[in-house]
UniProtKB/TrEMBL annotation:
It comes from Pseudonocardia oroxyli. Belongs to the binding-protein-dependent transport system permease family. CysTW subfamily. It comes from the Bacteria. It is found in: Cell membrane. Part of the binding-protein-dependent transport system for phosphate; probably responsible for the translocation of the substrate across the membrane. Keywords: Cell membrane, Membrane, Phosphate transport, Transmembrane, Transmembrane helix, Transport. This is Phosphate transport system permease protein. One of its GO terms (biological process) is phosphate ion transport. It holds the Pfam family BPD_transp_1.
Length: 316
């Protein structure tokens, strides 16, 4: 009778975790939790302070209007100015990013990249002063031309503002402010396009623009959308530039060249908060809560778009 010996299975050695790895992992986890705590704290503060305005009768609110009636023109102005900025800045940012990543010589590309990034460091109040002192007077002729030849479109119906402090100018100023954000994201996305895809397109006889259209832009579509959403979030929350440029009348209108303009939520809070008291403060905080929810929704949408295509990768 023979017996068979069973060879024991060797144990797999556990990876040794270094102290530095544990410290880094703990720091990263703590930073993530801290951000969530801060966000929850801001949301709790806004809800707590806005609650008296939410339950107060309309007769006690500013202007004796319903809270929705008070906030709606501000929300409309916020969305309109941000949308104008996004429509103007996004194509320009894509063109600048493509020039830096695929057309400009290396030295010029580096210098231009630094210059575009420097725009993000300029304080918003400087943009506001530039808008009201330079851009607004210079745009009167353009707005007059738009009213003369395109006045049948509600956007340019007029009457044209004599000072140039219009929603169109505010949108242009915001477009310059969000241009560095969108450009930076688009530039990094274009630089990460699969090199083999670009070389394959050129090898098949495609021109440089055809290669960009077939290989670069499809690869960076989700990055471009997320960058545009980040820029939109910045435009939604801008305060001083809009407060300085706009000539506010509190109306809801799509007319971009007249002197009657809706204000934005952030600009209205900045202008009204120093003199507000009692329930007026709660009303302003309630409008801030609306802006918080809108900005949060925009950023969540951008994250959803990025995550939806995160599984896609190309050969580099």
């Amino acid at each position: 009778m023979t017996t068979t010996e069973v060879t024991p299975t060797p144990r797999t050695a556990r990876p040794v975790t270094q102290l530095g790895d544990r410290v880094f992992a703990g720091s990263a986890k703590g930073a993530g939790i801290l951000i969530l705590v801060v966000l929850a704290g801001v949301a709790a503060f806004l809800l707590t302070e806005a609650f008296p305005a939410l339950v107060a009768p309309a007769s006690e609110l500013p202007g004796e209007h319903n809270l929705a009636v008070y906030i709606w023109p501000l929300l409309f102005g916020t969305l309109l100015s941000a949308l104008i900025a996004l429509v103007i800045a996004t194509p320009l940012a894509i063109c600048v990013a493509l020039f830096i990543s695929h057309y400009a010589p290396r030295r010029i590309a580096q210098g231009l990249g630094y210059l575009v990034d420097l725009l993000a460091a300029v304080p918003s109040i400087v943009y506001g002063l530039w808008g009201v002192g330079v851009l607004a007077p210079a745009s009167v002729g353009l707005m007059t031309w738009l009213n003369d030849y395109l006045g049948w479109i509600p956007l340019f119906a007029g009457p044209v503002s004599a000072t140039g402090r219009t929603m169109l100018v505010a949108g242009l100023v915001l477009a310059v402010m969000i241009l560095p954000i969108i450009t930076a994201v688009a530039r990094e996305v274009f630089l990460q396009a699969p090199r083999l895809h670009e070389e394959a397109a050129l090898a098949l006889g495609a021109t440089r623009w055809e290669m960009i259209k077939m290989a670069v832009l499809p690869f960076g579509r989700s990055g471009l959308i997320s960058g545009a959403m980040l820029g939109l979030g910045r435009a939604l929350g801008e305060t001083m530039a809009v407060a300085i440029v706009l000539s506010v009348s509190g109306v809801v209108t799509f007319n971009l060249v007249s002197s009657g303009n809706p204000s934005s939520i952030a600009a209205n809070i900045a202008l009204q908060f120093p003199e507000a008291s009692g329930l007026g403060v709660n009303v302003l905080i309630a409008s801030g809560l609306v802006l918080f929810l809108v900005t949060l929704a925009v950023n969540m949408l951008a994250r959803y778009i990025v995550n939806r295509r995160s599984e896609f990768s190309g050969a580099n």
